[in-house]
Amino acid sequence: MEMATVEGDGIIWNFHFRRNLFNWEQSDLDNLMAILQRVVFYDGDDTWKWRWSRSCRFTVRSMYKELFARSRDETREIQVFPVEVTWEKAIPPKVKMFIWTTILGRILTLDNLNRRGQHLNPMCVMCNSLDEGITHLLLHCSWSLRIWDAMLKPREEIYFDLFMVENLEWLIAWKPGPRTLGSKVWELLRYALIWTLWKRRNAGIFRQDNLSMRNTMNEVRATIWFWLSVWEGRNTYRYCDLLNHWEGIISGAWG
Ligand SMILES: [Zn+2]
What are the Reverse transcriptase zinc-binding domain coordinates in residue numbering (predicted)? Predict the structure, then answer.
């Protein structure tokens, strides 16, 4: 069914929503209609264009600049997101994006989904005892805490810090790591652990996968090893070093 029909100089839009809109969605629809008023159809194939870069191609930089400019307009004060905590790290772009939205409190945990009008059981699938929110899921859930505890073991003071943390901005205050391999592994550990917890949570929800601590911890180590491939120094180590000497690497006693 056509979404739009051209009649004379105007366009009639037929959205065919599958349900009635909530009251709070009506203003969004009005805004959308105001934008669509300016739409003009041309003959030719449809293509995607990113409006905030000159090449019309998506770049993280252009999106960051645009969002930054908007937040400045709205709040009249400069809010600088700490770019070094995500964008400048040697981790894959999709993980940077994930960490960035996590720190901003916007990943789609059950509380955020329900706030957007879903009606989902808010219970955390990892512990089945408390409601799922970002800080709970990735830091304070009893299941996640066991992983943090096991992986941070030689640096217990960091683990105890976790209990006072109120949100993921905690990632920004991550302390430096020990020697060569240790500092590299330590630098990536927070990202790999949070990324893995998120993937495990999704596997639990969508595939009813069993959560095993051992597999999860090995996945964190494998992820770090994979991300370290951009570092030349990795050639002098083997993946099994991360398995066999984990605590030594983290404490700086090995590597
Ligand atoms: Zn939980």
Answer: 58-148
Residue 236 CA to residue 247 CA, distance in Å, equals 19
Range of the domain at 52: 4-75
Q: Determine contact, residues 182/233, Cβ cutoff 8 Å.
A: no
Taking residues 95-108, report their average pLDDT: 91
Please give the distance, rounded to the nearest whole angstrom, from the Cα atom of residue 101 to the centre of ligand 1: 20
**Residues 108 and 233 both lie in one domain:** yes
- Same-domain status, 123 and 101: yes
Distance in Å, CA 139 to ligand 1 centroid: 9
Domain boundary among 75, 95, 129: 75
CA of 141 to the centre of ligand 1 (A): 4
Helices (H), 104-179: 110-115, 134-135, 142-152, 156-161
Q: CA 89, CA 150: separation in Å to the nearest integer?
A: 24
> Could you report the per-residue pLDDT of 168-180, keeping only the tens digit for each?
888 887 887 777 8
